[in-house]
Amino acid sequence: MSKLSNIWVFSDIASRLPEMIAAGVALGEKVSTFVIGTEADINAAFSYGATHVYYLGDKDSQKITEDYSHTMAQTISAAAENTLMLLAPTKRGKALASKLGVQLQAGVVNDVIEISIEDGIRAKHMAYGGLAIAEEKINSPVAIITLSSGAYEVQAADTARTGEAVSVAFVEPASTIKCVERRAKQGESVNLGKAKRVVGVGNGIGSQENLQVAAELSALMGAELGCSRPIAETEKWMERERYIGVSGVMLKPEIYFALGISGQIQHMVGALGSQTIFAVNKDKNAPIFQYVDYGIVGDVNKIMPALISALKA
């Protein structure tokens, strides 16, 4: 497969950077990574395969990710080459992508699941809530893509890898959003995309109190706990990072255990990468039973305690 001469990479979340770099290595001869942080962050980028690091300085609590768009745009423009930039599909990543799209007059495609460069840059992404896959061809000299989790396998870190590091002066944007306060986000950080086992809960769980039972079950299984979109975005019982679905996390575990989840296509798109799927739902006609390897028809709040007792035994 032919490769682009250079791929630009950035992630506002450190845990997503290795996958962005892995995509860059697969698609480009050179991988240029923007880094905001410490020397350890620079070395980490090299260890995962970056050939060049453009260092934007230490993290600044008074700056938000989008404030760096002018700096990145000028750096990319100075390279004077047709190129592709890959970003993590976070809220900040997509906001940065939109700004860079304007400043670089670049085509932008979000939540991409597959990239082809054989006949120009083509990007596939979910459409119609996951019912179809759309393919876009980006004809602008610079293409910008936010890449869905699970699209590329992360390379093992090699601390012997090194490359060229360049410090880049910050370019002050013409207008900014002033950051007046930062608060620690409630809840623990989780990366469901890397989990080997995942337990997912949906509306069938009934109440927020029942999540404690699901958490106990997932702990006994050695699994991470995820959820359907309503649990995270409507009820707000769990962090959005745990939402599984077409615009959430795309799973690739060995086991996915869905509890009280109906199985609408928007959710199943994020779960179909699982090797084995189990499900519990009281509705025997629930769509999820069309996708599972093993299913139980019954009340999830009766079956969870029974499973916990069996695992403890």
Brief summary of the model shown:
InterPro entries: DHS-like_NAD/FAD-binding_dom, ETF_a/b_N, ETF_a/FixB, ETF_asu_C, FixB, Rossmann-like_a/b/a_fold. The protein has 313 residues and is an alpha/beta fold.
Q: Would you kindly provide a written description of the structure presented here, covering whatever features stand out?
A:
With 313 residues, the chain is an alpha/beta fold. The protein folds into two domains: 164 residues, HUPs (Rossmann fold, 3-Layer(aba) Sandwich), CATH 3.40.50.620; 121 residues, 3-Layer(aba) Sandwich (Rossmann fold). Helices cover 25% and strands 24% of the residues. It is built from eight helices and 14 strands. The strands form two sheets. Strands 7-6-5-8-4-1-2-3-9 form a nine-stranded mixed β-sheet. Strand 2, helix 2 and strand 3 form a beta-alpha-beta unit. Helix 3 crosses helix 4 and helix 5 packs parallel to helix 8. The longest helix is centred in the N-terminal third of the chain and has 13 residues. The N and C termini lie far apart (53 Å).
